[in-house]
Write a structure and sequence with these properties.
Elements lengths: L1 H5 L24 E3 L2 E3 L6 E5 L6 E6 L3 H16 L1 H5 L2 H17 L1 H12 L3 H22 L7 E2 L7 E9 L2 E5 L5 H14 L3 E5 L6 H12 L7 E3 L4 H10 L5 E5 L2 H11 L5 E5 L5 E4 L5 H13 L11 E5 L3 H14 L18 H16 L3 E4 L3 E2 L5 E2 L2 E4 L6 H4 L6 E7 L2 H9 L3 E2 L1 E5 L3 H10 L4 E4 L14 E2 L2 E2 L6 H5 L1 E9 L2
Parallel strand pairs: 7-8, 7-10, 8-9, 10-11, 12-13, 12-20, 13-18, 17-18, 20-21
Antiparallel strand pairs: 1-2, 3-4, 5-6, 6-24, 11-23, 14-17, 15-16, 19-22
Helix pairs in contact: 2-9, 4-6, 4-8, 5-6, 5-8, 6-7, 11-12
């Protein structure tokens, strides 16, 4: 296996010195706890595979409750004692900036690891995910030390001085999804550190390697030991232990609705603060008065970027009936020409799904769509026998009560739904358990503003799709979760308010 791999996927990376272990696999497999790289106490490991071929690329420590416990205790010590406790906001800001600088210096290496882990095209890792992640650390470097309180005037008859303090929570547990491993980690790590918290972070078992390398760079940047601890493992063991641990003050989770509900139930036992960024079934609404060719091109990006493995994926494309034929000609025609390929090839624009399990899940939804009467316009099949590739898929004649319009597929499957007027479009858009993102395409300002107000979703894009910015809050309505990441809103979920009342009589 090691010889095959060394001559195959990993060899394409031109690995730097000490990047491989004695078996020819990536050396990233130990956990980061209290500033040290350690094995799981049980000695157990699990395989990490390259989705583009199914080959093993690393053996990763399978942490469990015992490992979570020592990580939480290390984070508690770092929060209450030691060098980190002595750091002020300016110090934490410099630390975050140093992390960003090192990430930028190693951007090609991190992008390659991200693609090896996830199967996304290398160009996306290098040109989108990593630059946005680096910018996130720099954005919150600027916020460090700026979480201020207020002075408050009390009752006029009271002779008192009152003010509030914004203080860090303590140890924060963070559970990261596999679709954007480094970027989702940055969204959580950067504001937590900016506010003075310490962290125990658990990456998804499918994509641990790139975050472990990021951990090395964080330590190199000067991160005091115990401030960030990385425990690898499975959700039902390491993840569940992190949620239940009494020493953890907050859980931040990005993932499925089902797991989000489990986290809420288990977190209730210790009254943890919880923020959840969950699934989506986002409506992308196209009116006849819009630029139809542009809307169709962007709609392809909205559903097929990252192979459709996005919580914001524009998987329900709502098109006004009078523009349906013209729109579909562009949408389905371009989708049919999209080619999937080796994610490590810089020319590839559509890579593999993250795992065989996810591929089979997506293909199962394709069969369900056909069985329920949707018309398959393009795609709908597996590509090759190695790796986990699925062709870009477009269904027409979808009704909003079909399974492919109700459930999150998390793959490259678009459902096209026709509407007749604005009232019907808004009703269909909101007829969903989810409410994470949405878009409306129109040249009518009144219509755009009406839909921006009327759609029940955390984000509404107008004449664009899937645009994010580190300064803008991100989160969902309904089953898409609660709490906000990014922007100044993230500071609220990583701090708590203390009231001080001084009697001056």
């Amino acid at each position: 296996m090691s010889e095959t791999l060394a001559n195959g996927m990993i060899a394409q990376l031109k690995p730097q010195k000490n990047q491989l272990d004695e078996r020819g696999l990536l050396r990233y497999g130990k956990m980061l706890i209290d500033g040290e790289w350690v094995d799981a106490l049980s000695g157990k490991t699990f395989e990490s595979r390259y989705p583009g071929s199914g080959e093993v690329i690393a053996h990763v420590a399978a942490g469990d409750a015992a490992d979570v416990d020592r990580a939480v205790k290390a984070a508690q010590r770092a929060f209450t004692d030691g060098d980190y406790r002595k750091m002020n906001g300016a110090d934490r800001g410099r630390l975050l900036w140093n992390i960003a600088d090192l990430m930028e210096r190693h951007i090609e290496e991190l992008a390659e690891l991200e693609t090896l882990d996830n199967g996304k095209p290398l160009v996306e890792s290098l040109k989108v995910d990593l630059p946005q992640s680096i910018a996130c650390f720099r954005y919150y470097a600027g916020w460090a030390g700026k979480t201020t309180g207020e002075t408050i005037e009390t009752n006029a008859r009271a002779n008192a001085f009152a003010y509030t303090l914004r203080e860090p929570l303590g140890v924060c547990g963070q559970i990261i999804p596999w679709n954007f491993p480094i970027q989702m980690a940055a969204w959580k790590l950067a504001p937590a550190i900016a506010c003075g918290n310490t962290v125990v972070i658990k990456p998804a078992e499918q994509t641990s390697v790139s975050l472990l390398r990021l951990g090395e760079l964080m330590m190199e940047a000067g991160l005091p030991k115990g401030v960030v601890n990385i425990v690898t493992g499975f959700g039902e063991t390491a993840g569940a232990a992190l949620v239940a641990h009494p020493g953890v003050e907050k859980i931040a989770f990005t993932g499925s609705v089902e797991v989000g509900k489990l986290i809420m139930r288990h977190a209730a036992g210790t009254l943890k603060k919880v923020t959840l960024e969950l699934g989506g079934k986002s409506p992308n609404i196209v009116f006849a008065d819009s630029n139809l060719e542009l809307a169709a091109k962007v709609a392809l990006m909205g559903i097929f970027f990252n192979q459709g493995q996005m919580c914001t994926a524009g998987s329900r494309i709502l098109i006004e009936s009078s523009a349906r034929e013209q729109f579909l000609e562009v949408l389905a025609g371009r989708a049919a020409k999209m080619a999937v390929g080796d994610p490590l090839d810089p020319k590839t624009r559509m890579g593999s799904l993250v795992s065989e399990e996810q591929m089979n899940r997506v293909l199962g939804y394709v069969e369900k769509g056909k069985a329920e009467g949707a018309q398959l316009l393009s795609g709908g099949g597996r590509v090759g026998t190695q790796g986990y590739f699925v062709t870009p898929t477009v269904f027409d004649n979808v009704s909003n009560d079909m399974t492919i319009a109700r459930e999150e597929i998390f793959g490259p499957v678009a459902s096209v739904i026709t509407f007749n007027d604005a009232e019907e479009a808004l009703r269909i858009a909101n007829d969903s358990a989810f409410g994470l993102a949405s878009a409306v395409w129109t040249t009518d300002l009144k219509k755009a503003l009406t839909f921006a107000r009327g759609i029940k979703a955390g984000t509404v894009w107008v004449n664009t799709y899937n645009m994010t910015d580190n300064a803008l809050p991100f989160g969902g309505y309904k089953d898409s979760g609660f709490g906000r990441e990014l922007g100044s809103a993230a500071l609220d979920v990583y701090t708590q308010t203390k009231t001080v009342y001084i009697d001056l009589n």
